Amino acid sequence: MDNRQKQDLKNASTLYQKILDLLSFLLLAGMFVFLLVYWDRIPDKIPTHYGFSGAADGFGPKGTLLLLPVIGVLLYLLLVFVSKFPSLWNLPVKLTPFNKIWVYANVKSLLSTMKLLIMIVYAQLTVCSAMEKNVGFFPLFVIAAVFAVLFYFIRRMKKIPPENPEDYDCF
């Protein structure tokens, strides 16, 4: 694979990846907008930790709410960076010239999906903490979704790719 092909592979995104990346970015931006608009109505003491049941069990000053979108930005940027450098990926399959594009496309879809799930979690925590609401069983749903996504994409990467790269349906 020459340098041009490697660059195309790093920059290429499917419609699925573009949509998820856009939704992730909108959720991230939405956290900041929500805090900006709602800040005066946020109580001085807010939930900062939720137990397994989804009920708040730790409290702190409202300024701690700013940590959620900031950490969200850092995680978002980390996933964007990692998606641009396939050589950093620890893959569950052996790469061959035949499956390389297939595996890379699937990993990029996995990273876009995980980015969206992370932004959903951070947005939910931001809103629930600001409004002093319990998160309920939402954390269990997210944990199940993360494992389902990982299982799906790892299993998918291990399949034999279609012979023609235009037939790849990596979303």
How would you explain this protein's 3D organization?
This protein is mostly helical and 171 residues long. The protein has helices at residues 3-11, 15-38, 67-83, 100-130, 138-157, and strands at residues 45-50, 56-61. It has a two-stranded antiparallel sheet with strand order 1-2. Helix 2 (15-38) runs antiparallel to helix 3, helix 3 (67-83) runs antiparallel to helix 4 and helix 4 (100-130) packs antiparallel against helix 5 (138-157). The radius of gyration is 19 Å and the shape is elongated. The two termini are 23 Å apart.
List keywords for this structure.
171 residues, mainly alpha, two-stranded antiparallel sheet, elongated
What's this entry about, in short?
The protein has 171 residues and is mainly alpha-helical.
In round numbers, the mean pLDDT is 86
Shape: elongated
Sheet-strand content, in percent, reads: 5-15%
Low-confidence stretches: none
Overall helicity: 55-70%
Note the total helix count.
Answer: 5
Count the beta strands: 2
Query: Order of helices and strands, N to C?
Result: HHEEHHH
N-to-C terminal Cα separation, in Å? 23 Å
How large is the radius of gyration? 19 Å
Strand order across the largest sheet: 1-2
Query: Main beta sheet: strand number and arrangement?
Result: 2 strands, antiparallel
Which structural category fits the helices and strands? mainly alpha
